[in-house]
Every structure is written in C-alpha cells, then in structure tokens.
Fold this protein.
Amino acid sequence: MTHVLDPNALADTSSGTGTLPDPFADVTRSNDAFRAFLHGLPGVDQVGAEARAKVLGTRSIKTTAKAWAIDTAISMVDLTTLEGSDTPGKVRALAAKARRPDPTDPSCPAVAAVCVYGDLAGVAKEALAGTGINVAAVATAFPSGRASREVKLADVRDAVAGGADEIDMVIDRGAFLTGRYLDVFEEIVAVKEACGPAHLKVILETGELVTLDAVRRASWLAMLAGGDFIKTSTGKVSPAATLPVCLVMLEAVRDFRAATGRQVGVKPAGGIRTTKDAVKHLVLINETVGSDWLSPDWFRFGASSLLNDLLLQRQKLRTGHYSGPDHVSVD
Amino acid sequence: MTSLFEYAPAPESRSIVDIRPSYGLFIDGEFVDGTGTPLKTVNPATEEVLSEVATAHEDDVDRAVRAARRAFVKTWGPMRPADRGKYLFRIARLLQERAREFAVLETLDNGKPIRESRDVDVPLAAAHFFYHAGWADKLEHAGLGPAPRPLGVAGQVIPWNFPLLMLAWKVAPALATGNTVVLKPAETTPLTALLFAEICQQADLPPGVVNIVTGAGETGRAVISHPDVDKVAFTGSTEVGRSIARAVAGTEKRLTLELGGKAANIVFDDAPIDQAVEGIVRGIFFNQGHVCCAGSRLLVQESVHDDVVASLQRRIGTLRVGDPMDKNTDLGAINSAEQLARIRELTAFGETEGATCWQPDGDLPDRGFWFKPTVFTDVSPAHRIARDEVFGPVLSVMTFRTPDEAVAKANNTTYGLSAGIWSEKGSRILKVTDQLRAGVVWANTFNEFDPTSPFGGYKQSGYGREGGRQGLAAYLRSDS
C-alpha cells in the first residue's frame, strides 16, 4: 500500500493560537480598504482548481477506509427539510431519523443536526431533547436574503428563541456583487450578535457568486465577520455545492487559521446525494486541510437524500449485498 | 500523528495482463527470435524480473529494415491514404479497448503510478493515433505543398519514461504520412511496445509496416546507422542525441531529436498561489520527474518566495508514495538502479555546492528503486543542480525580482524544451512567453499534452517538432 509522506504536513503549525493580535484589524475601516484587501487575496485559477478537485475525485476508497468514511459522513449530516409544505409532523419524523438513522443497527451513528425553517425550530428542539443532536435553523430571509436588516435580525432572534443551536444565514449577494463589501460584513456582524450563544453558519450562495475568486473573497469576508462556519449554498440555487467550490473554501479556512489562529468550519450543502460524493468531500478535506477538519464540529453536509444512500452503502458493507430503497425510510 | 482517514490499499489487479516468460522481436508481422543475449526487464518497484526479452543484433535489425522497405514499396506506400487512416483508427480503438491492460503493464515495467498510466499515458497514446488517423487522407492540406510524399523507412529510438506514449508519438505520424517503421524501445521498458505489436497483428496491419526490435544501445546504433533507413527520430538524452547526430551527419537521412531539458517554471507575485503550487508539483513530480520537459527550475518572485516554498512543502507532505499499482499512489518508483544512482550523484552535488536540501519525513519502501521528492532552496544559477538535467523528483528553487530578470534567468540554460508562467495578468503572460526560448510555454498549467500541439525544443533540447500539423513535416518530403 501507499502512505502519505508526512502525516503532519497539514497539522496546525501556527504558534500562539488565539493570542496573536488580529492582523486584519484595520481592513474593514472603509469599504475601499476592505475592497483592496479582498481583491488583494491571491486569485484562483478556475481550470487549475477544477483539475485538482478532479484528481482527488479519483481516489479509491475501499473496505476499512470506506466504512470509516461512511460513518463519519453520517455523523456530519445536517438532515434538512426546507419546504413550504413542512409541518411539525414532518419535522418530528426527521428528528426520529436523525437519532437512529438505521433502526436495525444501533452501531450506526446519529447525524449532527436537523436543519429546518425558524418557525419549526421549537418543534425540532423538543423532538431532539436530550439527544445531543443540534437544531439548525435558516434565517435572515432565507433563501434570497431580500429583506430589511431589521426583519433579518428579527428572524434570527425568533429562531434562537425557538431553541435553535445553530443559525444558517444568507449573505446579501446583491450587495456583494455590487462591491458593497462593508455592508455585507456589517450585516454578518449584527447577525452574529443576535445569535447570542448559537453558532453562526454563513451561506455564501456560491451559485450566485459564480467565480471562484468571488468564493474566496466571500469566504474571507464571512470569516473576518465572525462566522463559525462558511456554507456553500441554500440548496435553492443551482449549481449548489461543487468540489472546486468546496476546495477553495477549504483553502480559505486553512489560510485563515494560519493567519489568525482561529479555526472555521465548512458546510457544503445542496446537490450532494450519493455516498461517492460524500467520500470525495472527505478526501478533499483530508488532503487539503487534514484531520483537524474531519469531525462534525468542523465539517457538515447539508443534505436530505444523502443520508439514505449512506445507509444503503453502510448496509452493503456490513452484509455484502445491496438491499434497496425500501430498506431505508422515505422522509 | 497518523491521519484519521487512512486509505486502505486499493491495488489495481495485475491479472488482466498476461506477461509471457519471454518475448521475441517483432519483424515482418511476426515474433521471431533475436540473435543477441536476451535481456531481463524488471519491475522497478519490486526488482522482480517480469520477462526475458530478445535483443536484436545488426543482422536482426537488417531483417527488420528490409521488411519495412518491402512493406513501404509493396503495401503501405501504394495504399490509398484513406485506407491507411482506417488502420490507424483501428489501432486507436484497440488501444482504448485494451487500455487497462496497457496501463497495468506500463506501471509494472516502468514504475509509474497506475493513476498516471491509466489517466495520462494510455489515453494520450490513443489520442495520438486518432489525431494522426484523421490526417492520413488530408496531407495535401498540411501546408507542405500540393502532394507531400513519405520518406520511406523510419528508424525510431524511444526512451523509458513514457514507453507507450513515446511509441505513439513516433509511430502514429510516421504511419499516417505513409512511412514504415523500425522502432527500438528502451531496454528497461520494452513490454508495452511488444503488447503494441500484438495490437498491430489484431488490427491486421500489413506485415513489415511496424517492426519492433528490442535491445540496448547497440541495437539502437544499428537502427539509426542502417544505410536503408531514410529518417531517424530519437527521443532521449542529449548525450546520445549528439552521437546520433554525428552518426547521421553526411548521410541522406533526415533527423529529428527530442532531447533533455531544464525547464523554468516562473511564478510571479500575482499568481494564483494554490494552483501554482499544484502546477509546481505536477511540473516536477509527475512521472517521478522522469520528464524531459519537467519544470525542474522554479523561479519565484522574491516577494512571494517564502509563502510559495512553505505551501509547496506542505503540499509535498501530502503526496502518497509507494506501490505504483495502488490507485492512490502519487509518486512511484525510479525506473532503474542506474537512474537512481545518477539522481543521487547530482543531489549530492547540490548539497556540497551549498544549496539547502529539503525532503519530507517518512519512509520509502525497502525493495525497489525509490527517491524522495526533494526541494533545493538557496540555489545559485551556477550550481550544477540549476544547470544539469537530473531527470528525477528534484526541484531547484531560485528567485527573481523583475520580469526581465525572470526571462534572463529562464533562458540561461543550454536547453530550451519547455517553460511555465504563473500569473493572473494576461498581458504579462503574453509578453514573457514571447521572450522565452523554449519550444513549449505553459501558462497557469504545466505538463499538459495534446496531439494537436507541436512539441519540441530549442538549443540542446533538440530539433524538429512532434505533434500537430508541424509534426507531420518530419515525415514528409514536399519537393514534388
């Protein structure tokens, strides 16, 4: 077999974690300064990033490695329902699945969180009480983000009051694309404050930012504003999560930690439907930022149908044969 | 610390390929015994003997050249060009159909990772046949006159770094233009050429159109100095290239040489750094650095030197070395004990001359020929590691301050095969490209190959072009 030359190559080497003065303290003193900073970040060559993601996509993950990857992926799932037709019943059903994804196998890990609209956070919280599974709620006029700041902040406070442990906010893409970076920044800061103890995931909606340069800038913007996680997409815009986008975001959190000592999580969401897709993402983490991000504390999959495919593949590894869609629950 | 996520072994099965205990020479459409002492070819990753291969003496080479001449006069030369194209299309399709076989055999015989032989060598070899198959009946549009004619018999000698791909680069254009060939593969990597001979049989290629004579340097000398060979094509070291040029001088033979290189990979401070680091890795560690156009001299703008070197070292630490047959291997084995000795000798010079040597931690396999990816910093342009071709996974890092200095340093070499530029500024890329004395210049990528693109060198990197419309000229006469 092959081995990695230096297993510590991606380990945290920044000294004095958290004690360094923030080297970016003054980059947000004006919109011009902030623009100069964000546009001064190294560019991303799209062809090169796609090629790198493609090569990592060819990694062959078998047997024990596959078993580990499937369980890890399950434990990273934010099991999501974001439909206009959502009801308390639907959310309770999802919560039951989140606790015991495979009722036939108690060794199957629980998922990381259940992700719902803010008005259903309370229902989810109650259904998940005592499980250690978090409630994530989307807020800030999700998915478009087109509302006044007061409305967005009220949305956040409402979800937090309902019991949300994590808030998934959307950035103002309109402001970002017209270069009003400081507005986007200040809004994230305000949302973070409104979150109180809840963790903040910042959705960049990369399908609307389009270029990888913009993805890198938006990632840095969200991290500087205090986001605990950066998240690719709402799932309502296509393309949603792609490997090259996730690669660029992982590079951003890696570089941000090296510069500031603060670690930020990454959440691709939307479009990840198969075990193969999930494993490719884990490979991407493993070879871009390393083991420090290989945990639900630092990496999540925003997904709904992915979980069933992970369960089917898990059963296949355990029993040696494929079962079929009737062996996992329809949600 | 070990990683949470250890990849389980994922070896490609070798059962798909049937390696015979011994191989003969492929002359006039059949396998025949050679008169020389057979040579053993080994798997460089394990030192296991894979097979015994005949060696061709002068008499055998003479038989091969006579068979090629016969085929040129009687079948291949007079054939309708469209029909020649059909044969080439058939060979290309067979290469694709049997791609896994070729990839496995190439990796076993050469030591390169299966990922590369599967995703690069074999698909590109097929692409070269497809591309040239299309030219076969369109040569009057190649810009070489109204009715260009083939030269006759081509004697071709190829190296061990891309055994099948170099065969395709040589054989496909020769056949598409109506020539017949006598090809000598490298002595350490003859097996895929011999499997290609089976493909020629399977494709019903007329006997004598392709002849493959195995052996060492003496066999190669017999091929290029045979009086009835009209055209000599060689890819390999500059040293051997010189002796071939001397041997061919004063004869009617046409000659193309594709020789060594010491390519500059230039990283400007406005480069996309993460992709540049990938490109540097690909430039020097692709195929263990056994690449004539490898980006072995890294020229980094001083203002980003420390960042680039730190990122590069971090990235090198993630490379996976070991069993070339494992689908997750990034860096395979050095092709031979001789080559390993040469790499060691040149890197030793680097240290004694005062450059700083860096290698990642970690172990190499116990058996076989291995060398760690190596980065030299504090390299002066006067050091031997900055001037001599190492042909291994060894990178020399130097700095520059202005674009003019970058160009001057990049061109300060006796070679001129390839170069790379990393910058987000298009106008700079175009200007610097114009000033570089290199046959191929890659912008924001490296070691990218395509049959439509001519490849070849300046200065001691050789002369003539392979691939593209320009590559056809090496096999055609336009004096009609």
Notes: Chain B touches chain A through 46 residues (CB under 8 Å). Chain B has two domains: 22-259+459-477, 264-443.
